[in-house]
Amino acid sequence: MKSSVSIRCLQAAVTALVIGGAPAVNAQPTFGNPSPTAGSETSQRANQSADQAVYKPVEYINANKKGPALIVIPGEIKSSNATFLQKFTSNNIADFAEIELSSANFQVLERANLGPILKEFELAYNLGDPQAARKFLGMGKLKSTKYVVRFDILKTEQVAAAQQGFDGHALGNIAGALGAFSGSWGGARAGAVGQAAVGSVQTGESTGVWIIGMRYKIINAETTEQLAQGYTEEKMEVGAKSSSVLGVSQSQQGGVSLDTMVQRLVQKSVWEIDSKYK
After folding, report:
1. Euclidean distance between CA atoms 110 and 117, whole angstroms
2. Would you say 169 and 258 are in contact if contact means Cβ atoms under 8 Å apart?
């Protein structure tokens, strides 16, 4: 008897929980901000800049059409621009490409299935060795591979740079001198105040613009023949500005990183692949 009562109580509790509304399990997670400056003016400015660089998904026009099976082999940064390579490092271009090609509804085969022979696999396609390529494609799921795709950064050039600034020290000295020559105590005092105020003003601003270019290649998985290729470019701007008045200073810097540029260039390339080569 006690057992049946307990079961009925449990059923009633479950029913009440369902009807009463359990927390939604499909809600997207949200996270707090532990920064001590959260919500401040500097936080708002920094977040406004960061919002421009955050990942934004692309709506691929043929996403409803299933694409062929393919493997993405890692691309590389081929630029010889030493300044750029000192400031930035390449993330895994192939990882970004796999994400975007999957979003475009291509059948992306896992590179991990190649295991330790991935480098040999890349070499076979880079050298155009069909015999070696067919040997690798005889393994498991890789038999269905139709395309091998790679993405390379070919161009990284700083094409423009500009800077400007203002230093109030010289104008402050002029204000002080005019006050001193005014011949009155009030004028001298006003000149001294003006010299301190104007002389404390310092502002600076600098901007650099890079052009980043990406090439994609689509290779026949069986013959290693190149079926198609494309090239696209984007501008990357990095800037900083600062100001100081009477000891109160503020500064801000930001721009799009190479990782974000790679994502955006991959998205543009995948959009073209999706619209032309499905």
Report:
1. 13
2. no
pLDDT of 70 > 50? The answer is yes
Question: What CATH number does domain 58-276 carry, 2.170.120.30, 3.40.440.10, 3.40.50.300, 3.40.50.10610?
Answer: 3.40.50.10610
Strands (DSSP E) contained in the chain are 69-73, 107-108, 147-167, 202-220, 226-245, 248-255
Instruction: Determine the 3-state secondary structure of 49 from DSSP.
Output: helix
Whether 269 shows a pLDDT value over 70: the answer reads yes
Residue 24 in 3-state DSSP? coil
In terms of Cα–Cα distance, which of 239, 166, 240, 163 is closest to 203?
166
- Give the length of the chain: 278
Whole-model pTM? 0.69
What are 33's two structure tokens? 């901000």
CB 195 within 8 A of CB 173: yes
pLDDT tens, position by position, 86-103: 766 666 788 999 999 999
Q: Give, rounded to a whole angstrom, the gap between the first and last alpha carbons of the chain.
A: 67
Average pLDDT, the chain: 74
Which residues are CB-neighbours of 208 under 8 A, at least 6 positions away? 158, 160, 161, 237, 238, 239
Residues 186/178, Cβ–Cβ less than 8 Å: no
CB atoms under 10 Å from CB of 165, counted, come to 12
Helices (H) and strands (E) in the chain — how many of each? Answer: 9, 6
3-state SS, residue 173: helix
Give dist(CA 64, CA 254) in Å, integer.
37
